[in-house]
User: Which sequence fits this backbone?
């Protein structure tokens, strides 16, 4: 089921539209519980993507995007994109049933998430304003539902502040030094020397087996936080022992540490709001995937045959592109339908 999450790893990918042989165009690409995803919407999204060269190249670095004909998209790529459209429609329906509405704070947080996903604001700004707004809205809806599925009540902002108030250590940072030695006896001896007034940095340079920090008098830096990657025993001391004092020896898998915290601070909520929201939504990923699996299984999903069929089985339910004969060229779809099925550049 974890593979389900790949559909939400980046903003929705470009879609393509295929005209029939007689030149007519079906008004829908998919129907989800009798609600249509129109080909007009798919074309509008396609124009936005096709005009953003940096983003298109980013996608093409991961999978085939263009079809075999000039100005076309690969059918499998289109099927993946249409699957994502279906998922977002299901999310919107669920939010409406829960009477949940995206607010300004949700949109602000979502904008930052989208920019990070597409690797920079410059790429994001290359999209038309209407498409930027669409990407932000989708991400905000996804985050809002994820929070709701974790049992959050009230607004996302209220949930964020409540989480921050009860988990401040997760956002704190500290300036930390340590002296690492191999035995308890050696650690106790060094702490006794410190108690008699010997200089911490001098002892660290002479005694610490962590040669890298020893050269700096034991300093590890001032950006030590819960995501730094140190072992739990070490972090427990960093965020609990008194500031300005060498603490009691702490044993870890590396030996015995005499830790000194020279400062420790927790930034105000407003400075870490995005980090708080990220933690909340990350914590709810399993619930989201379970909901999505169950919702897709129950949904009535109809796909325009030109795009394939919808398969609900397996770890990654989604649109399966039309089958093709073994000796036929790879299926592709025109970027934008023109007269008699031709493709017109965006």
Assistant:
């Amino acid at each position: 089921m974890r593979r389900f999450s790949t559909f939400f790893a980046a903003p929705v990918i470009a879609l393509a539209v295929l005209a029939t042989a007689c030149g007519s165009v079906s008004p829908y690409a998919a129907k989800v519980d009798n609600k249509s995803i129109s080909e007009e919407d798919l074309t509008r999204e396609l124009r936005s993507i096709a005009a953003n060269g940096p983003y298109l190249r980013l996608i093409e670095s991961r999978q085939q995007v263009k079809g075999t004909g000039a100005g076309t998209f690969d059918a499998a790529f289109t099927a993946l994109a249409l699957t994502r459209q279906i998922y977002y429609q299901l999310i919107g329906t669920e939010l409406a049933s829960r009477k949940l509405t995206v607010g300004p704070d949700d949109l602000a947080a979502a904008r930052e998430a989208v920019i990070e996903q597409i690797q920079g604001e410059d790429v994001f700004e290359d999209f038309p304003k209407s498409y930027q707004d669409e990407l932000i809205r989708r991400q905000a809806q996804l985050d809002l539902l994820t929070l709701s599925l974790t049992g959050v009540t009230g607004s996302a902002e209220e949930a964020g502040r409540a989480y921050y108030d009860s988990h401040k250590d997760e956002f704190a940072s500290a300036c930390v030094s340590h002296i690492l030695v191999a035995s308890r006896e050696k650690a106790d001896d060094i702490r006794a020397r410190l108690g008699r007034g010997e200089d911490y940095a001098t002892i660290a340079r002479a005694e610490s087996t962590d040669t890298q920090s020893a050269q700096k008098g034991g300093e590890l830096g001032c950006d030590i936080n819960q995501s730094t990657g140190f072992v739990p025993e070490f972090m427990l001391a960093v965020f609990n022992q008194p500031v300005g004092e060498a603490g009691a020896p702490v044993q870890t898998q590396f030996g015995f540490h005499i830790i000194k915290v020279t400062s420790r601070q927790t930034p105000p909520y407003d400075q870490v709001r995005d980090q708080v929201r990220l933690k909340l939504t990350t914590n709810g990923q399993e619930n989201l995937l379970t909901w999505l699996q169950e919702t897709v299984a129950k949904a009535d999903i109809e796909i325009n045959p030109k795009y394939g069929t919808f398969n609900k089985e397996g770890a990654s339910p989604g649109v399966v592109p039309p089958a093709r004969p073994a000796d036929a060229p790879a299926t592709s779809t025109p970027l934008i339908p023109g007269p008699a099925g031709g493709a017109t550049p965006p």
Remarks:
- The chain has two domains: 2-150+284-341, 173-265.
- The domain at 173-265 is CATH 3.10.50.40 (Chitinase A; domain 3).
- The radius of gyration is 27 Å.
